[in-house]
Amino acid sequence: MAVDYAVIVVYLAGMLAMGWWGMRRARSKSEFLVAGRRLGPVMYSGTMAAIVLGGASTIGGVGLGYQYGLSGAWMVFTIGLGLLALSVFFSARIARLKVYTVSEMLDLRYGGRAGVISGVVMWAYTLMLAVTSTIAYATIFDVLFDMNRTAAIVLGGSIVVAYSTLGGMWSITLTDMVQFVVKTIGVLLLLLPIAVVKAGGFSEMKAKLPTEYFDPLGIGGETIFTYVLIYTFGMLIGQDIWQRVFTARGDRTARWGGTVAGTYCLVYALAGAVIGTAAKVLYPKLPNADDAFATIVKDELPVGVRGLVLAAALAAVMSTSSGALIACATVANNDIWSRLRGATDATAEAPDDRDEVRGNRAFILVMGVVVIGTAIALNNVVEALTVAYNLLVGGLLVPILGGLLWKRGTVQGALASVVVGGLAVVGLMAGYGILANEPVYYGLLSSLAAYLVVSLATRPTDAAVLAAWRERLAGRGTPELTSAPVPAPR
């Protein structure tokens, strides 16, 4: 394992070096939070693919392939569909807004006052997303170093917190680009063909497994529908995803770069399912389907290649973890803390760029410590991820898409939608269970009903607010926003 260890150590050292280099570039709020909005198509595509394809997509995607066969690709496939929908229909308009958070978009559209409540819901989503990625370090480092769970989480989490705190989005962009390359080589070009060959090829796989393993809909129609509802729609509204859209250099980069990344996700989904299916042939009686990835890597790959593929899994986890961490810190600072502080200290001077960078850097560090502590305390990755996406879709999907698509929506309707949908999801998860489908179904319906009823029952959004909103969507508004909320019209 010495060669494999060397590969991993070089990879981790490289991540820290990227963080140090990014620190030299992140000298303003824009540079630190959205990489100066200067990413071209190549870097944008690579980093967008890196953040959406995390540990759940890699380890979990192979596990679903092990359990259900080719139809296990549907979870990651719906992530790719969501990214494609975001890129084709919404990304250009989102990029033109020149904001830093989803809540700032809601304030722009509805005329203020929606930010703090929506920020709390988005913060809870990004926190749980970062926690689930951090928990996944335990699986990888256990295979690598036979390390106990807590030490593995602290080691992996500390490296991500270090490079994210140093350089913000520039560090994360650089590391994500490296992680994208490592994932492509490790999973698509090495593990996929080796797994198929070791399993005897597709003909042998078909001969040894039940026919439902090769049924595209074998996982079940209800499961596929739930994946679409949670992951496809979740891709449209998550702060971690929008913050990457904000890094695009222009409309075409956001649209075409995101389309390339979404297409890559579809290929990655199928690859994970095929690897899992091959693992089922090789190891038919694993106690846990999620062990399929680590088992096939540990037992079937040659020295050196094994280290690179494990680095690919580590890259998948780190890219999602760092993206969720900076999103969580950005929301906590810009949407919650800055607004609450502004409400109590109206005479405070606006901070300069260096103060903004120091403040956001401090929030990443604090949120990183919270994420690591929460990851140590929790055990179930699937439950944490389900809570995150249920809150996101049930609480924020309707007011965000409603604001983009329906001009009659009002701030009162948006607030009612967030509160009713969020509370309904939480209450239904307590009643039906966290992993049940009903919480997101009924939570989303209640959010939609509240949005429509309250919006129609209240005065339309002020014409001046809508005019300013249309100007920003067209790319003709203020080039940058401060972290202060947009004031409501008098």
TrEMBL record:
The keyword Transmembrane helix applies. Its main location: membrane. It is found in: Membrane. PROSITE patterns: NA_SOLUT_SYMP_2, NA_SOLUT_SYMP_3. It is a multi-pass membrane protein. Keywords: Cell membrane, Membrane, Transmembrane, Transmembrane helix, Transport. It comes from the Bacteria. InterPro entries: Na/Glc_symporter_sf, Na/solute_symporter, Na/solute_symporter_CS, Sodium:Solute_Symporter. The keyword Transport applies. The chain crosses the membrane at residues 6-23, 44-66, 72-95, 116-140, 152-173, 180-197, 217-238, 259-283, 303-332, 362-381, 387-406, 413-434, 440-458. Belongs to the sodium:solute symporter (SSF) (TC 2.A.21) family. PANTHER family: SODIUM-SOLUTE SYMPORTER-RELATED (PTHR48086:SF7), SODIUM/PROLINE SYMPORTER-RELATED (PTHR48086). This is Sodium:solute symporter. The lineage of its organism: Bacteria, Bacillati, Actinomycetota, Actinomycetes, Kitasatosporales.
